[in-house]
Design goal:
single chain; three-stranded antiparallel β-sheet
Length: 125
């Protein structure tokens, strides 16, 4: 916490600056299963608005949550929700999609929300 007297030499951000796009760090993951083993995907963190769409929505089924979050954050290759649903049909339960989803959650700062979602959805199994 900074006291008001200590703010004289501070440079404050403008409203315009706070709305400018900033560069995000892209995370690259190498796939480990199936015929795509050894190939790579590129992931970006969700922006604040995207993350808030998922935050608190604990009633969304986990398969749909994964489809939507991966369709937003996986930038190479870019896949639709329907394509990711098809991938879920063939990917092992502890396969690449789980690794991708966990990484997106981590780099987007949503790890705590994800653990709450799993606790809430455990009754779905």
């Amino acid at each position: 916490m900074v006291k008001k007297d200590d703010t004289r030499d501070m440079e404050f951000a403008s409203a315009e600056e706070l709305q400018e796009t900033t560069e995000v760090e892209i995370e690259y993951l190498q796939l480990e299963h199936g015929k795509w083993k050894g190939k790579w995907v590129a992931l970006k963190p969700l922006n604040r608005k995207q993350a808030l769409r998922f935050k608190g929505n604990r009633k969304m089924p986990r398969d749909l949550f994964e489809q939507r979050i991966v369709s937003i954050a996986m930038i190479n290759p870019n896949m639709t929700v329907a394509q990711i649903s098809g991938w879920q049909d063939v990917d092992p339960a502890d396969g690449d999609l789980r690794k991708i989803t966990d990484t997106i959650i981590r780099i987007s700062g949503m790890a705590e929300e994800s653990s709450k979602r799993e606790e809430t959805n455990d009754n779905d199994l």
